[in-house]
Amino acid sequence: MIYLKRYKIFEDTVNIEEVCEQYGIKNYTVNNDNTVDVDGNVYFRDDNIKLLPVNFNIVNGYFKCYNCNLTSLKGAPKSIGNTFNCDKNKLTSLQYSPEVLESGDYDCNSNMIKSLKYITTPIPGDLNVEYNHLTSLEFCPTVQGTVYCSNNEINTFRDFYFYKDDIIFKNNPICDIYDLFKDIKLIDRIRDYNFEVNGKISLSLLNQFLIDWGHEYDGNLREYFNRKKYNWKLESDVPEWRYSEDVKEKYRFYRPRY
Predict the structure, then answer these.
(1) Where are the alpha helices (DSSP H) in 50-195?
(2) Running DSSP on this structure, what letter comes out for residue 166?
(3) CB–CB of 144/162 below 8 Å?
(4) Longest Cα pair distance anywhere in the chain, in angstroms?
């Protein structure tokens, strides 16, 4: 008789070998702690599992568990050789993300994630976090490829500075501001003006930024934002924000000529 190791997940006893057979997982090893190493790929696509049925340790290939109705990444591998895909689930957190991704992309689009805390770092390929509920890019890891964060609720340029040309962020509230100048290179200058903080906008500082960089708005900025879907908190001037007196002089030789 072949001895089959069993793994207790919550109140159910799961036969690891049966799970691996069901999902076509081959070349696997069950460790003494009942975690599973796989010399190859793992692919779950089942809208009824909700939770990963076994605990993985090392997967040398890709690990895909999209469109499974997952509510947690508990059981995800600690290390993945190539690409992690958990999109189209019901995740609200990236806790239990792989600690190591050796190559490939990280894709968690179309979930209900509010923060990038716990995400794998670094990402050797692209990062796709589209169609979630992110309000910022806080905790965003080092990404070698492109950051796709469109269709979220991002309302600040904070943490954008490291990505510049390698970020796609359309259909976020922050685009209301970006549409006023439409120059990805200027995002790196915004922190010197500090005109937006946590959904608040200092109209005077924003106006100064637009004037200094040749994108003066021909109209009323307050009316412009009042027409937008996102409920921006608008201030003509915010005392705790300061526009450095040397900003103009600092960038006098860099300002574009029109």
Answers:
(1) 175-178, 190-193
(2) G
(3) no
(4) 83
3-state secondary structure of 37: strand
Question: What span, in angstroms and rounded, lies between the C-alpha atoms of 149 and 132?
Answer: 8
Per-residue pLDDT of the chain (258 residues; tens, 9 = 90+): 233 344 444 334 568 999 999 999 999 999 999 999 999 999 998 778 899 999 999 999 999 999 999 999 999 999 999 999 999 999 999 999 999 999 999 999 999 999 999 999 999 999 999 999 999 999 999 999 999 999 999 999 988 876 656 899 999 999 999 999 999 889 988 989 999 887 789 999 999 999 999 999 999 999 999 999 999 999 875 444 444 455 445 444 334 433
Q: Which residue has the tokens 């340790």?
A: 57
What CA–CA distance (Å, rounded) separates 196 from 154? 12
Q: Which residues contact 194 (CB under 8 A, 6 or more apart)?
A: 202, 205, 241, 242, 243
Which residues on neighbouring strands pair with residue 223, listed in sequence order? none
What is the spatial distance between Cα 166 and Cα 178, in angstroms, rounded to a whole number? 15
SS3 42: strand
∠ Cα 255 142 147 (to 5°): 70
Bridge partner list, 67? none
Tell me the torsion sign for CA atoms 53, 139, 146, 182. positive
pTM score: 0.85
Q: Where are the domains of the chain?
A: 39-172, 190-258
